[in-house]
Structures are given as C-alpha cells and as structure tokens.
Amino acid sequence: MKILVLNAGSSSIKYSLFAMSDQRTLLTGIIERIGESLALHRYRVTGNEAQIDESPINNHKLALQEIFSVLKASGASNNAELACIGHRVVHGGELFKQPVLINAQVTQQIASMIPLAPLHNPANLLGIQEALQQMGDIPQVAVFDTAFHHSLPNYAYRYGLPSSLYKEQGVRRYGFHGTSHNYVAKQAAQYLGKPLAELNLITLHLGNGASVTAIENGRSVDTSMGMTPLEGLMMGTRCGDIDPAIHFYLSRTLDMSMDDIENLLNKNSGCKGVCGENDMRSIHQMAEAGDENAQLALAMYAYRIKKYIGAYFAVLGHVDALVFTGGIGEHDVWLRQQCCAGLTAFGIQIDSDKNQNPTHPCGEISSSSATVKVLVTVTQEELEIAIQAEACLMGTNKTPF
C-alpha cells in the first residue's frame, strides 16, 4: 500500500509518498512560491539526488498537477498504485477527534472552522478541494493537528471567560502540532522500552512555530498553544503569551485595526520582533557577532521554554523524559543546554558531549546521574499522517490518546 501525504499552505505544498509495508519514504518534495513569477520545486526520490526546478506555477491546481506528474515520472508511483491521500488539517475544532474520510460534508465542516484558524485552514482546505477534483476516485483522509489534544481535561482547556463563549463560539484551548507530539511520544516510548500508556513525558516541538505538551500516561493533558497557534512559547514570528490588554493599548494609542494587530502578533513579533530575524541560525550568528537584540531574543526564547518545563513538571508530578524535536529542537545544541540548565532539582542534567551529537533518529543526551531522561527525536509528521490515514482507511482507527 502506498499513501501520499499533502500539507498545503497558502503559497506552498509539501508532499511525501510512503510504502506502508515498511513505512519507507519513496519520494518527498515541496513546491514553494505558488502564484509568484517563478515557483521553486524541490524533490527527491529515495536513493537519488535531489532535483530543483523553477517554473511558473500560478495556483494550487497546477501545483498538484506537477506533483502527480513527478510521481508518475519518478517511477515511485502512479495514480493507480495510490491507496489513499492523507491531508494535514490544522484545526478540527471539537468535532474531529480522529482522522476522517473526506467527503462533501467533511469539507464543509472544515470550512466552518476557518474562523478558528483563518491563517491555516483555508490553505489546507484548498489543497483538499483541488486533490478531490483531480483525484476524487482515490480515498482521501483528513488528519487534524488538534486531535491529539482532545484528551485535555476541561479545567485545562477552558479559559476564564463567560461559559457562553465556549458553548456558542467554541472559545477554548485546542492545541496544535498534535501529529508531531503524538509521533515523538511513541518514539520515546519505544526508546525507553515501555508502553506509552505508562509514561509521563514533556514533548517540545521547537521550530518557527513552537509548542510544549504535557503527556500523562500517554495522553495529552496540557499544551501551550491555545484556541489558535498564537498562544504559548515565543516563536519565530509569533508573540506567544502576552498580556491580552496589549491589544486594547495598541488600538487606542496607535489607532491600529484588529487586522493590523493580528498581523503584528502573528507575522512580525516573536524573535523577528525582538531582533529583526526569525531564522534561529541567523539569530545565533548575529548574537555571536555581538548583536544585543539577537542575544536578548535567544535569552527570551529559552527562558519561556524553561518556564513551561517547570509548569508541566508541576502538572505531571513525575516525568520520565523530556523530548526535544522540530527543526530547532533537533539541531540547536545551545538551546537544549540553556533550557535544561539549572534544572538538576527536577532530575534533569545534560551530558555536554552527548548533546553535541545526539544519536538519530532518537538519542539520549542526559547524563548518567540524571533521573529524568532527555531525548532528541526526529519528528516525522508526514509519516504519522500516513499511519493515521492508513488506519482510517482500513477501519482500524484507534484513538491513541
């Protein structure tokens, strides 16, 4: 069985093709700058060198045509061999607690949640609609970032707001990056040699978007992102936790509109707001060159993570492992050291040599005297989507949380 996974953004589509018999990646790629004068298409068939093409791709329909053309030409697959197409959908609200086969009703329900994720769901939906139009004879499955967090207790997901806003408008904590947190939790359980249902973990997905999740006996019980992916940690361009009255202050003193404030907090805040850069590699270079704003951005970024680690220790009481993942979590040696510094009282202590070169795809960087394991795990969100899509297609959906 072969499954294609599509992750459609507003101007890009990521894709991966998997052979599910051994969960092997056959082909992976990304088309960026859709709608611009020249789109960038990078892809690689496993075992071959990466290919890079630049050509006009004006819309998602043409992008998907390009993807299916590459699939056929590569020899990795053709349309007849595809058993399923799995789609990443950021927001499933309270309705979708597990993957679901896509039909007209499902697409309408995903569209109804656009107010909850106006920056994400429209792009995800566009990819679904185009794929259905072109490949409607192939079963397609939606896998939701929010699904893993449906096990949060009500005292963790409710806000201190009037109950009517929750009951009538769906205002609550949903959480995101669920496919990643779920995947790395399972990898940690495999590494530790214990059933996930017997483990307490703190998983940190750290990339341009970042979130932390407290996992108790294998189930998400709290997570840093909220009703939208804006809440929680300071991120590449998102502010994370701030005083909500700042919105009113900006509106009154600078006459900013709600759209302007939303754009500011989502796209021009976080590390970018503090130092003018959101790529962590560039921020490190700036900091090493003496840029004080870059140094401050790094300090703020690490400090916010450490605060959440402490908070989730209090929530869980006992923690078996702290798990770093995501582009930054997997590669930033300094950040891992900084986040764990001074936490020996919690049983966390990093081995500097191990931290410099953690074993992949899952490796331990904690010292031999630590009572809490610290792991670095490569996340594979696309593979997790394929796994969940296969279970849905086969009718073996089992809520793992």
Q: How are the elements arranged and paired?
A:
Layout: E1 2-8, E2 13-19, E3 24-32, E4 39-45, E5 51-55, H1 60-74, E6 82-89, E7 100-101, H2 104-112, H3 121-135, E8 140-144, H4 154-157, H5 163-169, H6 178-192, E9 200-206, E10 210-216, E11 219-223, H7 245-254, H8 258-267, H9 270-275, H10 280-288, H11 292-316, E12 321-325, H12 326-331, H13 333-340, H14 352-356, E13 362-364, E14 373-377, H15 381-393
Parallel strand pairs: 1-6, 6-8, 9-12, 12-14
Antiparallel strand pairs: 1-2, 2-3, 3-4, 4-5, 7-8, 9-10, 10-11, 13-14
Protein name: Acetate kinase
Binding site for substrate: 88
Family: Belongs to the acetokinase family.
Unreliable stretches: none
Classified by CATH, the class of the largest domain is: Alpha Beta
Major β-sheet, in short?
8 strands, mixed
CATH H-level superfamily of the largest domain: ATPase, nucleotide binding domain
Structural class label = alpha/beta
Strand order of the largest sheet: 5-4-3-2-1-6-8-7
- The Rg value, from CA coordinates, equals 21 Å
Assign the CATH architecture of the largest domain: 2-Layer Sandwich
Strand content: 15-25%
Order of helices and strands: EEEEEHEEHHEHHHEEEHHHHHEHHHEEH
Main location: cytoplasm
Family: Belongs to the acetokinase family.
EC number: 2.7.2.1
Function: Catalyzes the formation of acetyl phosphate from acetate and ATP. Can also catalyze the reverse reaction.
